[in-house]
Fold this protein.
Amino acid sequence: MDGLIDIFRKREVKRIIIFALIIFILFSVRSMINIILLTFIFTYLMNRLVEFTAKRVRIKRTLLVILLYSIIVGLLTVGIAKYLPIITSEISQLVKRITTFSATSHDNVLMNYIETILSSDKIATYLEDGLSFLLKSFTDISKTSIQVLLSLILSLFFILEKPRLKEFTGKFKNSKIAAFYYEIEFFGEKFTRTFGKVIEAQFIIAIVNTILSVLIFIMLGFPQIIGLAIMVFFLGLIPVAGVIISLVPLTIIAFTIGGYLKVLYLFIAIMLIHGIEAYILNPKLMSSKTDLPVFYTFVVLIFSQHFFGVWGLIIGIPVFVFLLDILDVTNKEATIK
């Protein structure tokens, strides 16, 4: 009996038990997972934005936080009021265009090959889930708006009261649940350093890719620019696979509006954008610690999409990197910047 007690007193065993308890709690509140993830993402990204701006603008922190949140909320409100009908319409047209292409027989080898890729289980699942998610999110705007609003409010109060929250939370160090607190602190630091940093990098890369892609779409004369921009941005949040998945509908649209020449121009443009991502953005924003082999990336995405749907495609790699960090399966010479 004493030997069993000694085993449970070991830090590694306690850490595993507490980690399992955290997983169980998250599973129990899985219906709130959207708000939990959005709150963390908004809090982390806005906190980074506040810190970045505070170094360059001499203004009181509280006022700066309120100002930045007011700008974000204002942009969201204008975007929803002015562009929501356009976005919904364009995404619907994109879905119809891809569906029509899949239902049409083609005489050339290239288009038949693309149709084969499009009809393959995983790519079809990703496209269906992703486009359906976008369409559902923009059509069921009331539910989405409430979740986004609640997450923004929670993140606002967290950032405004960050010093006070740290002070209050620190009181648990000497409480009866001190052991639990120290393990939560350990996992929290790891989670922020890995998951948060990777999400931040994915967002920056997705924004840059979207801006460059929109310029290419305008030059190539693509229709539904706003819808395509939304699609490219969300698919850009999926490491590696996002580029491949987005290339399928983009190739279809390029062929339907300009034949092989447009497809060639598109491929050259996408290769240039991917080159900027691979050789400039990725090395600057992430280290080799997150540079997973493509095989591992796709395996993680397949399993995370199966268990968590669209969210799994976005958070699968960050969560996997977080688990690697906990297990110390990392390159000691490289750290996330």
Q: What stands out?
A: The two ends are 47 Å apart (CA to CA). The longest helix spans residues 241-285. The chain has 13 helices and no strands. The CA atoms of residues 23 and 280 lie 36 Å apart.
